[in-house]
Design brief:
With about 180 residues, the protein is mainly beta. It has one domain: Porin (Beta Barrel). The chain is about 10% helix and about 65% strand. It has an eight-stranded antiparallel beta barrel with strand order 1-3-4-5-6-7-8-9. The two termini are about 30 Å apart.
Length: about 180
């Protein structure tokens, strides 16, 4: 699955380097993908020691709609990989729905913040815990053309796990992604 994700990100990067064909409008549909690292803030509390790994390679896919140049909505799927605690592999993923607020900084650069909700799943060998919660993040976006943008962001998924797990953990996701606007 990770190879497929990397292939998809590579294809999007190639598309980003192609010349733009249409004028970008203030609103519209877009989709994209991102890859990076996830870090479980409190992973060591999810199972008995030793706590071998709190980070893993992660990826996400997203789609959104810009209502205006400043405000949009976005839905996504995020796979956080796994952490290893007490010899057990704990895997996590989440689907999210967020509002995105853009702040133009310069002609092609903008900062953005996002906030919304997620539905997450955390699994170990014998435990499968699903949970809803809040998510928020910050990022920078560079419009590489009229249809393509490159993003870098941090997003937090608050209080994942819990229930059958001894504790909850905040999942931080650091990534770089490519966004393609649909004309």
């Amino acid at each position: 699955m990770k190879k497929l994700s990397m292939l998809f990100l590579g294809s999007l990067a190639i598309a980003a380097s192609l010349p733009a064909q249409a004028q970008w409008t203030a609103s519209g549909l877009y989709f994209g993908a991102a890859g990076g690292k996830s870090a479980s803030v409190n992973a060591c509390a999810l199972a008995p020691a030793p706590c071998e790994s709190k980070r893993d390679t992660s990826f996400s896919f997203f789609a959104g709609y810009d209502l205006t140049r400043f405000l949009g909505i976005e839905a996504g799927y995020n796979d956080f990989g796994k952490v290893t605690v007490g010899g057990a592999n704990i895997k996590s993923n989440a689907s999210d729905l967020v509002a995105v607020l853009h702040l133009p900084l310069e002609r092609r650069f903008s900062a953005y913040g996002k906030a919304g909700v997620y539905h997450g799943e955390t699994k170990a060998e014998t435990i499968d815990q699903r949970k809803n919660g809040a998510t928020y993040g910050l990022g920078l976006q560079y419009d590489a053309g009229t249809r393509v943008a490159i993003r870098t962001e941090w997003q937090r998924f608050s209080r994942m796990a819990g229930g059958s797990f001894p504790d909850t953990t905040n999942m931080d996701y650091y990534n770089v992604g490519v966004l393609i606007r649909i004309p």
